[in-house]
Every structure is written in structure tokens, then in C-alpha cells.
Amino acid sequence: MTLAHDVTGDGPTVLLLHSTVVDRRMWDPTIPALAEAGFRAVRCDLRGYGDSPLAAEPYNDADDALALLGPGPFAIIGSSGGGRVALEIAARHPARVTTLVLLCTASDDLAPGPRLRAVWDRENALLEAGDIDGAVDLNVTQWVGPEASDQTRSSVRVMQRRVFDIQMAVPEEPPQTAYEYAYADITARTLLVTGAHDLPEFSEVADHLAGVLPAATRMHLPWVGHLPSIERPDLLNPILLDFLR
User: Fold this and answer.
1) Candidates 3.40.50.2300, 4.10.240.10, 3.40.50.1820, 3.40.50.2000; correct CATH number of 5-112+170-244?
2) Which of 18, 51, 203, 217 is the most buried (most CB within 10 A)?
3) Is the pLDDT of residue 171 over 80?
4) How high is the pLDDT of residue 109?
5) Alpha carbon distance 227, 245 (integer Å)
6) Looking at the DSSP assignment, which residues form a beta bridge with residue 5?
7) How far apart are CA 221 and CA 68, in angstroms?
8) Rounded to whole angstroms, how far apart are CA atoms 159 and 153?
9) What is the tens place of the pLDDT at every residue in 174-217?
């Protein structure tokens, strides 16, 4: 199956991988800025998000995303769970990935603390009770930072509801195919962005990666929650473009 995706602009390719709270629409404020700056932006819905149904057999998110690209080099911008996929791609294909921008990224090494476990437990309890709207509200409150507009919160609510509708309609998701790789094999220039209003686990992930990746830049922003690209695109887009250039 080919992932739902779209391509905008001409020039060096930038692959955008969304957070697992939302779908590829999270990049709506980013795509015009990339295209205007002379990049070719490729964004996709991973399986079980947006317009991409869940798989019926084992799959791998990194392989699915790579299938959308040609043979040449590319950059990646990954948000949260999409950042974990970006890290896998860059570790398995270091010669192809020129630049990584990781926004509040997850990783294979993420160790959930009490606050993150409490969010997951509360979400599961709400879903088991059939309170999908409550689970949506929980995620919007948790993951959207204080500087986001009401319109942005409404957009995240729509996307998160779509995630639940797709994934809860399938009795059991097939497993992902696992590969062996090491983050130390990544050679791409990497920008690790975290925010003051996010859970501490994501800063811990970024701090760890900053010590592992050979060409990493660390940036902590005071106005960021978990989804900076849609919370304040006016502030984040210049950061993205400066690093990609």
C-alpha cells in the first residue's frame, strides 16, 4: 500500500513525518514556507492516520515513507512519533539523509516517567469507557502548548479524533517489521528542538541524542508545547528554514 501523501514545490527534497497525535495536516503552516524557500516538500500519513488505513499485515513505517521518495538525498523534519521514524530512516540510510530536524522527538529509548504514564493510563481508561471525546480533550490539553490559537486546538481535536476512529475500528494492529540499527550511525546534521511546556521525557530524549549524534545542535524554546510547528509556525518556520539551508 502506498501511503496517502502530497508533494509541493521543487528543489531539494524534505520529508515531513507527523506526530502520532495528529496526521499530515499538522504541516499545513510549514508547507508554503518550504515551497517558497525552494524546497520540495513530501508529507505523508503514516498507517492508521489521516487518509492511510491500518495495514493488514506486518509493515514498517520507515520503509513506507522511503517508498514515496526517489533515489537521491533528502532532509527530514519529524515531530514526536514521526521523529522516531525519522531517526530510524537516518540510522539505516545515513548516506541519503543530509539533515534532520526533530521536534519534541520520541525515540526507541524513550523511558516514560510518572506523568507520561498517567496520560497514557487516563487515555486508555477513557477509551475503554467509550468516552472518545474525553480522550480527545485529554490529548489536546496535554500536547498543545499555551500559545496555540483556538483554531489550532480545534484542528488538533479533529486530527486526534480521526486517529481514534481509524485505530479503534481494527481489533488488532499487525506488528511492525523490526530492523537492527544504531543512532550512532547517523551522520546527518541534526537539530533537536524541545519546549518548556512539554513533558520532561522529550527533553531527556533530546539531551541523550545530543550526546550520541555526531553533528547535533540542541535548541530549547520557552514558548513550545509538544507541537511547535502548529502552535507558533511564525516563530518556528524561520528556525526550520535557517537550519535546512
Assistant:
1) 3.40.50.1820
2) 18
3) no
4) 87
5) 22
6) 44
7) 32
8) 10
9) 888 999 999 999 999 999 999 999 999 999 999 999 999 988 99
pLDDT tens sequence across 83-140:
999 999 999 999 999 999 999 999 998 889 999 999 999 999 999 999 999 999 999 9
DSSP of 73-125? -EEEEEETHHHHHHHHHHHH-TTTEEEEEEES---TT----HHHHHHHHHHHH
Helices (DSSP H) in 98-199: which residue ranges? 114-128, 132-143, 150-167
The tally of CA atoms less than 13 A away on the side-chain side of residue 97 is: 29
Residue 43, number of CB atoms within 10 A of its CB: 29
Give yes or no for a contact between 48 and 54, defined as CB atoms under 8 angstroms apart: yes
Interior/surface letters 74-102, b for 16+ CB within 10 angstroms, e for the rest: bbbbbbbbbbbbbbbbbbbbeebbbbbbb
Distances (CA, A) of 177 to 39, 180, 207: 31, 10, 28
- Check residue 172 and give its pLDDT: 79
Do 190 and 100 contact (CB within 8 A), yes or no? yes
Its pTM stands at 0.96
Q: Find the length of the chain.
A: 245
Contact 224, 196 (CB under 8 A): yes
The residues spanned by each domain of the chain are 5-112+170-244
Q: What cell was used for 221?
A: 524554546
Could you tell me what percent of the chain has a pLDDT over 90? 90
Residue 13 has pLDDT above 90, yes or no: yes
